[in-house]
Amino acid sequence: MKYALYLGCTIQSDQYGFEASVRETLPKLDVELVDMEDTSCCGFPALSSVSVTGWHYLSARNLAITEKMGLDVLPLCNGCHLSFIETIHALEEDPRLKEIVNRNLEKEGLRYEGTAKVVHLIEVLHDAVGKEGISEKVKKRLEGVKLAAHPGCHAIRPSDLQKVDDAENPQKLDTLIKALGAETFDYPEKIDCCGSQLAVSSGRSTLRIAGEKLQAVQSYGFEGLVTTCPFCFKMYDSRQRAIRGAMRDRSIEVPVFYYTQILGLALGSSPEKLGLQMNQSPVDDIVNKILGDD
């Protein structure tokens, strides 16, 4: 298993814990990550609302770099993943757009052919490595830890363009959590949006949407929330203080993790190597519970 690693903008600008945990854990599962050079923004979400052609050009540019490497691409961000998927669809449906994009790519000695596959982190872990492949390498099982799965919108919608998981009943992240020995179960708000895309136009509405999700997670007895989306993680992890204010609920205290962070703990990695010191939600107690006497 060997993939071109596309980090995108958000992860390189402030989600360092996600990158650290991915680089720490995937090689332990025999997944080789190859850094891409000369990449650019995928165009989502800023450029996609200004210039559709410019957006697809930027995504196609990164895909063309991947094709030149002869590898499939693993974008860590749910938004980047969807941007690539939508661009592939658009260029397949519109030969004229593909011609315009390639005309501009030629200036850099690049060409988009559509040969590289775009894979999601959940697909790599669930479909390629597999539950058993993960379980057999677990050194510290997360027995007695109850975690809520949050797949995020862009990993499952629109369902007619991508099949990372079932859009109405996603279970892959749940399976991956259970592979570590932790407990999880379905809950009504599981596929609700985090509200991050409303942040610019309606900040208070965003905080309330996220707050209602965190309140629900607590009410069901979960000890933490797990996701693979940097946009969702930012909302739930770093905005909890603002969420408490917007909701007028000081009881909201939910530890939020990237899946690769709890995976790393189960594989025996130190919290520091997983970037857990950069999480802003209250993760220390649950990390200490998992580590026990270590």
Topology at a glance:
Blueprint: E1 2-6, H1 10-13, H2 16-25, E2 32-35, H3 52-69, E3 72-75, H4 78-93, H5 95-105, H6 121-129, H7 131-135, E4 147-150, H8 172-179, H9 203-219, E5 224-227, H10 230-238, H11 240-247, E6 256-258, H12 259-267, H13 284-291
Parallel strand pairs: 1-2, 1-3, 4-5, 5-6
Helix pairs in contact: 2-12, 3-4, 3-5, 4-5, 6-8, 9-11
Textual characterization of the structure:
The chain is mainly alpha-helical. It folds into two domains: 107 residues, Glutathione S-transferase Yfyf (Class Pi), Chain A, domain 2 (Up-down Bundle); 161 residues, 3-Layer(aba) Sandwich (Rossmann fold). The protein is 45% helix and 8% strand. The protein has 13 helices and six strands. The protein has a three-stranded parallel sheet with strand order 2-1-3. It has a three-stranded parallel sheet with strand order 4-5-6, with helices on both faces. The model has no long low-confidence stretch (mean pLDDT 94).
Enumerate the strands of the largest sheet in spatial order, edge to edge or round the barrel.
Answer: 2-1-3
Distance between the termini: 32 Å
Order of SSEs: EHHEHEHHHHEHHEHHEHH
How many strands, what sense, and barrel or not for the largest sheet?
3 strands, parallel
| Percent range for β-strand residues | 5-15%
The global form is globular
Mean pLDDT: 94
How many distinct folded domains? 2
CATH level 1 name of the largest domain: Alpha Beta
Specify the structural class: mainly alpha
Q: What is the tally of helical segments?
A: 13
Low-pLDDT residue intervals, each spanning 5 or more residues: none
- CATH fold label of the largest domain: Rossmann fold
